[in-house]
Write a structure and sequence with these properties.
This protein is α/β, with parallel strands linked by helices. Helices cover about 25% and strands about 20% of the residues. The chain has helices at about 25-30, 45-55, 85-90, 160-175, 195-200, 210-230, 275, 305-310, 325-330, 400-415; strands spanning about 1-5, 35-40, 95-100, 120-125, 135, 140-145, 145, 150, 180-185, 240-245, 280-285, 295-300, 340-345, 350-355, 355-360, 380.
């Protein structure tokens, strides 16, 4: 079992999701050998809560991570009593490993080895320089590279290469036993430090797309090396590979104001418009599930834990989950989505989706695709007719508005218990 969790990758930033200017054959190969979701949502539009939703199968608020956690050593994060995919699979006899970014706590009990991972290699904060492995987001600058809870130094060695090496070694070492690998790639999150090969390849693109594109294809090379290792040891048909971006692309200053793309969707990282939470997601298991197919049902990052449990015959944690197994959807394109509705919240912004209808409360548009006024504090859209979320239908659809407000209140009540 391998989960490849990318960082700040835009809604359409793979060839198989519509990008015409990117080269992503290895990520695309997961879709060719498996199933690609077209209406898949991250649990949150920012890093930490999205990761918490994935690993626990819960709304981030229920998992104790309503927003980004601190990147400072000694600061806690996701509470240790939360049961992760790693703990679930470890109890079932799997070897469990983490490689890459964590960003869910920086104390012994909230770092990976305290959350069910037998082995861990990577950085604990939100981002690092890929050569010095220092965190430069705010001062004082500090080194952030750890192996099994102990600080390690690899001065000057490119972090994506280190991740590939760690993943390959993990697969080789545990190829004869059940294993779970959570590969949380810190790419294409800033700093946009691509390899020279891809910088030259994309030199013709305007900035910042050229910098972002080079980093995406650098990541694709890394993913290709790890998938190649599975093939070398004839493990592909015995390995479930899951791929997802943690949320939409960044338009922050450190990405030169953009670079990624949400295609037809409004919003980006930090926003609950589609471009902030609708993400590329795929699953492959050659010989067991279909290959080269699409699924258009709504699905979410919280769904992977119960899906993995059902696919592997592993007992679910004895905790209240918000995710639903996607097995029936994976098995049949005609199956219904397991979700009648779903809920997101980040800060004061919230969103509810039921069927094709979506209601946003206190929306934030980080893609700046239109002005939001006081009349837009409740923003109702019909995604079947307006996937770009340009028209607010709240005033003209009072019954639907009230219906989704009731669902929002229901979730607020359930989370307070």
């Amino acid at each position: 079992m391998i989960i490849i969790f990318t960082d700040d990758q835009g809604s359409i930033d793979l060839n198989c999701y519509g990008a015409k200017d990117l080269i992503t054959p290895h990520m695309d190969s997961i879709a060719k050998r498996g199933i690609r979701f077209t209406q898949f949502y991250a649990a949150a539009p920012v890093c930490s809560p999205s990761r918490a939703g994935l690993l626990t199968g819960k709304f981030p608020q229920r998992a104790g991570v309503p927003g980004n956690v601190s990147s400072k050593h000694g600061k806690s994060g996701m509470p240790a009593e939360q049961v992760t995919i790693a703990e679930m699979l470890k109890d079932a006899g799997y070897r469990t490993g983490h490689v890459g970014k964590w960003h869910l706590g920086y104390t012994e009990e909230t770092m990976p080895n305290g959350q069910g991972f037998d082995e861990s290699f990577g950085h604990m904060g939100g981002c690092i320089d890929n050569y010095s492995h220092f965190f430069y987001w705010n001062g004082p600058n500090r080194h952030d590279l750890w192996k099994n809870g102990k600080e390690v130094w690899h001065d000057g060695t490119y972090f994506p290469d280190l991740m590939v090496q760690q993943c390959q070694n993990y697969i080789k070492e545990h190829r004869d036993e059940p294993f779970f690998l959570y590969w949380a790639i810190n790419v294409p999150h800033y700093p946009l430090q691509a390899t020279d090969k891809w910088r030259k390849k994309y030199a013709h693109l305007p900035s910042p797309r050229n910098k972002y594109a080079a980093f995406v294809s650098t990541m694709d090379d890394c993913i290709g090396e790890v998938l190649k290792t599975l093939d070398e040891f004839k493990l592909r048909e015995d390995t479930i590979v899951i791929f997802q971006s943690d949320h939409g692309h960044s338009q922050e200053e450190r990405t030169f104001g953009g670079g990624g793309s949400a295609g037809p969707f409004r919003g980006a990282k930090f926003s609950l418009f589609e471009g902030g939470i609708r993400v590329p997601a795929m699953i492959s298991w050659p010989g067991t599930i279909a290959k080269g197919e699409e699924r258009h049902q709504m699905a979410t990052g919280c769904d992977w834990l119960p899906t993995i449990a059902e696919l592997t015959g592993t007992p679910l944690p004895q905790q209240k989950l918000n995710g639903k197994s996607l097995k029936t959807v994976i098995d049949s394109s005609e199956a219904q989505s397991p979700h009648r509705d779903f809920y997101w919240q980040i800060g004061k912004s919230w969103a509810i989706r039921e069927g094709d209808w979506k209601l946003l409360g206190n929306p934030r548009d980080t893609s700046q695709q239109g002005q939001l006024t006081k009349q837009d504090q409740l923003f109702l859209v019909d995604l079947s007719n307006d996937p770009g979320e340009k028209r607010n239908l709240a005033a003209s659809n009072p019954a639907k508005l009230e219906r989704l407000k009731q669902i929002y209140r229901r979730y607020q009540t359930s989370l307070s218990k």
